[in-house]
Amino acid sequence: VHVLGMPKKKAKERALEMLEKVGLKDHVHKYPIQLSGGQQQRVAIARALVMEPKVMLFDEVTSALDPELVGEVLAVIKDIAHTTNMTMILVTHEMDFAREISDRVVFIDKGKIVEQGPPEQVLENPKTERLQTFLKRFRNGY
């Protein structure tokens, strides 16, 4: 918040507001070691939101989390998607989540765009053999 030139009082208010947005206002006095992995991810999201970005990149934000903590992080991202006009780039293997919140899906393989379009088109009716194979393996759990 120093970068934004915000007065200290306003910065504290903004930080508390963002902690509330990610559901962690009650944890404001805790140290990172006292937070779960999901809570730590939500704090990271709150820190980014304080800066009022126009674009936010979520790069595999759930990959290191226990399965039971994934939902709380995805709920925060979903809330941001539905309550802001922010452009969000979501790198994920959470296909159902991507389908639910995305306006556009881009499937990249070996650094190249293989297929892109609305989630229903790309994930329900893939045109390329590579994406068809990926989705089949993904749906079969291997």
Plain-language structure description:
This protein is an alpha+beta fold and 142 residues long. It is 49% helix and 15% strand. The longest helix has 17 residues, at 67-83. The protein is elongated, with a radius of gyration of 18 Å. The termini are far apart. The mean pLDDT is 90.
Please summarize the sheet with the most strands: 2 strands, parallel
Low-confidence stretches: none
Class of secondary structure makeup: alpha+beta
Order of SSEs: HHEHEHEEHH
Count of alpha/pi helices: 6
Number of E-type strands: 4
Q: Could you say which overall geometry the principal axes of the C-alpha atoms support?
A: elongated
By oligomeric state, this entry counts as: single chain
Question: Percentage of helical residues?
Answer: 40-55%
Mean pLDDT, all residues: 90
Distance between the termini: 43 Å
The amount of beta strand, in percent, is 5-15%
Radius of gyration: 18 Å
Topology, pairings included?
Elements: H1 8-21, H2 37-50, E1 55-59, H3 67-83, E2 87-91, H4 95-101, E3 105-109, E4 112-117, H5 119-124, H6 129-140
Parallel strand pairs: 1-2
Antiparallel strand pairs: 3-4
Helix pairs in contact: 1-2, 2-3
Main location: membrane
Subcellular location: Cell membrane
Protein name: Amino acid ABC transporter ATP-binding protein
